[in-house]
Write a structure and sequence with these properties.
single chain, 479 residues, Amidase signature (AS) enzymes, 11-stranded mixed beta sheet
Length: 479
């Protein structure tokens, strides 16, 4: 069978069990695609061919014995390079960690390893996940496989590009303010952000601890359900994970969607920077969803997304300021000796951290400083509570909410690099869900000038099954 790297998880799992090909052959196909594409795309920071092929051979031996294995066993994937992987380079896209070998494994990659998933490499990202284009990586920008003159989105742009270009079958990402959903939209793949607390943050380099959500990118919604089944659930290493039973997502998505109550926030379609062509594609997708469910979409009142944007860009940098204090040139990572301890801090952080990371640390430190804490950080937390209340009230009326993922399609590389405010606006429709902690998915729904557009489907807390169900039926209706 040719083009094994183009298979979905579902197809690959079936092929492995039917002995149409081996895990080693599937892994080599992905490694070959990486070798053929990476000089153009730069989706990966590090690739581990020997580790991947060794793991694949073990799965092939288990398959030969007839062992019962997970649907993910023997299937190659990539992890965003802020997931700690024991004794495998983990850089977070930063010079300050360019040679870092973690002594332990993240819960998510450990769970995947335990079921026989094959890690082939670590993908590029905006440094410490701070950015919306993957141009802020300390190493190189990643290019969008749909148009290599454009960004893949960020900060999980490397993972999105790797899946969209068939370098891997699926990939892990993190979503703090839209960092999986926006790249999924830009690259034309499926990106799920689960409920905050559905997946464990243990072993993932913290950016903003009250927002970071372990997420993933796949080729289909059915594949997304399979990955979530494995990586979700309570973890004693992360006290923010919910002790809430998992649904059987692969079965739940098959249930009918008729009668689901749908809402749509009118404010999102009048927001600053909304491309009229993107708006038209989203509204057309909404019509298809209405036909699938047999119910009309009703308007729901949510706070104007620009309020959420302002709130996010106070809370997130404040948490960044705290979390990144550990990179001081003393404990681990890059150390540039200075004349004294303070000078060592300054030189190590000055040389090791990039401009966007420094900008957010400065913003957050200012917002937390004496005399400004109440006016900025505390006020932003109060607004966040109101945003969450809006979602609570909306979900009293509807089961799911539909919205755009991004106001535009993927923009040109370099187009917004020198204008941080314009870059931040790219996440205007994804940030509110992050502040509220609700699950949301980006599913491809059309194109504008040949570039993908994603529809965002948003659900109640811990109700990923309904989000995935509607996304799956919508996806199937287009095929």
């Amino acid at each position: 069978m040719s083009d094994l790297n183009k298979l979905t998880i579902t197809q690959a799992a079936a092929g492995l069990r039917a002995k149409e090909f081996s895990s080693a052959e599937l892994t080599r196909a992905c490694l070959d695609q990486i070798e053929a594409s990476e000089h153009r795309l730069h989706a990966f920071i590090n690739v581990f061919p020997e580790v991947a092929l060794s793991a694949a051979e073990k799965i092939d031996a288990a398959l030969a014995k007839g062992d019962e294995l997970s649907p993910l066993a023997g299937i190659p994937y990539a992890a965003k390079d802020n997931f700690c992987t024991e004794n495998l380079l983990t850089t977070a896209g930063s010079r300050i960690l360019k040679d870092y070998l973690p002594p332990y494994e993240s819960t998510t990659t450990a769970r995947l390893k335990s079921v026989g998933a094959i890690l082939v490499g670590k993908t590029n990202l905006d440094e410490f996940a701070m950015g919306g284009s993957t141009e802020n990586s300390a190493f190189y920008p990643t290019k969008n496989p749909r148009d290599e003159s454009r960004v893949p989105g960020g900060s999980s742009g490397g993972s999105a590009a790797a899946v969209a270009s068939d370098e891997v079958i699926y990939a892990l990402g993190t979503d703090t303010g839209g960092s999986v959903r926006q790249p999924a939209s830009f690259c034309g793949v499926v990106g799920l952000k689960p409920t905050y607390g559905r997946t464990s943050r243990y072993g993932v380099m913290a950016m903003a601890s009250s927002l970071d959500t372990i997420s993933h990118l796949t080729k289909t919604v059915a594949d997304s359900a399979i990955v979530l089944q494995t990586i979700a659930g309570r973890d004693d290493h992360d006290s923010t994970t919910g002790n809430i039973a998992l649904d059987n997502y692969a079965e739940e998505i098959k249930k009918p969607v008729t009668g689901l109550r749908l809402g749509m926030p009118p404010e999102y379609f009048e927001a600053e920077g909304m491309d009229p062509q993107v708006k038209a594609v989203i509204l057309s997708a909404v019509k298809k969803v209405e036909a699938l469910t047999g119910t009309a979409v009703t308007p729901v009142k949510l706070s104007a997304p620009d309020y959420a944007l302002a709130c996010y860009y106070l809370i997130m940098p404040s948490e960044v300021s705290s979390n990144l204090s550990r990179y001081d040139g003393v404990k681990y990572g890059l150390s540039v000796p200075g004349s004294d301890l303070f000078d060592t801090y300054l030189k190590s952080r000055g040389q090791g951290l990039g401009a966007e990371v420094k900008r957010r640390i400065i913003l957050g430190t200012y917002a937390l400083s004496h005399g400004y804490y109440d006016a900025y950080y505390k006020k932003a937390c109060a607004v966040r509570s109101l945003i969450k209340r809006d979602f609570e009230q909306a979900f009293e009326q509807v089961d799911l909410i539909l919205s755009p993922v991004s106001p535009t399609v993927a923009f040109k590389i370099g187009e917004k690099s020198n204008d941080p405010l314009q870059m931040y606006l790219a996440d205007i429709f994804t940030i509110p869900m992050s502040l509220a902690g609700v699950p949301a998915i980006s599913v491809p729904c059309g194109v504008v000038a040949g570039l993908p557009v994603g529809l965002q489907i948003i659900g109640r807390w811990f109700d990923e099954k309904t989000v995935l169900r509607l996304a799956h039926h919508f996806e199937q209706s287009k095929n």
